[in-house]
Amino acid sequence: MAIKKRLYYFVAGTDMIEFKRRQLAGANCELSVVEMGDPAKPALLLLHGTHDHALGMLPAVANLLQDFHIFGLDLRGHGRSEKPGNYSIFAMVADLRAVINALELQELVLVAHSLSGHIAIRYAAAYPQQIMRLVLMDAMGPPRPQRELGGRQLAASLRRAVDSALDTRSRVRQLKDVAQAVDRFQRNNPDLDPEFSRLIAENAVEPHEDGGLRWCFDPAIDLIFQTYSEVETEQVASQVRCPVLLVGGELGLEFWRNLAPEVFNDEDWYEQEWQRRQALFSDVQRVVIAGAGHMLHYDQAAAVQRELAGFLLPTKLM
After folding, report:
1. Which of 98, 167, 189, 291 could form a disulfide with 298 if both were Cys (CB 3.0 to 4.6 A apart)?
2. SS3 273
3. Coil, strand, or helix at residue 90?
4. What is the CATH number of the domain that holds 21?
5. 3-class DSSP state for residue 150?
């Protein structure tokens, strides 16, 4: 597929950031990629979490634009990428492979948030010669339950998953206009710079079939969580050969507690899970961002930027 380029501009403080958008062929799915930074510098590829898009990762790396050639992938089902209805972890790893090949990237840094950690770990394990460094931002899923779930709990979980798969349309929220989208996003992320909020929200909407706008992700994307397990991710983590930075938020457990308070409600166990997962990698560092939750690059963008710069540019004075 031919590469299409469009120029966009984003004002961050007094700096003008230029970025391009390309459409590339993935694994039987058209994908959208944003490009910014210095083309003469090493490549860095951003991978966002569910219900987000590529530019949502910009708050984590805005300070690295002079040091890297930065690409951001809209995962299938998100942003300006196609929404084919086929959402599996394997398809997304294949999409990533297709994008890296199309961009002719030989050696690169991967920065992944949430769901994309499972994609990035698998890719780095399968193609270790291509990944120079890996950053995982709250990106290995919830802690394991302290006790093995019984048959009744597993059956209830299965029912919730099936009901969710059959009820995607009701979760497509209708928005009046871009202003409402920006306002809602800013209220949900009050600690994020307003310029970042505006950029992310404006690029996170598309026309709603009943009028107005909707967030541009397919609610069926949530089915991906039925296509893999955290155990599989942990099994291949030992094959990641590059240095790894694990970035967590001080308030990260709150995200999982809100989803299932009866399962995820023990701070000590949460910390033990972090330490156990850290030990899966052969070359790893871990940092905890004070005052940040699961969306740590929205909650404490400046602190995340400092930690990533310290890991990716260790010889540069921050």
Report:
1. 189
2. helix
3. helix
4. 3.40.50.1820
5. coil
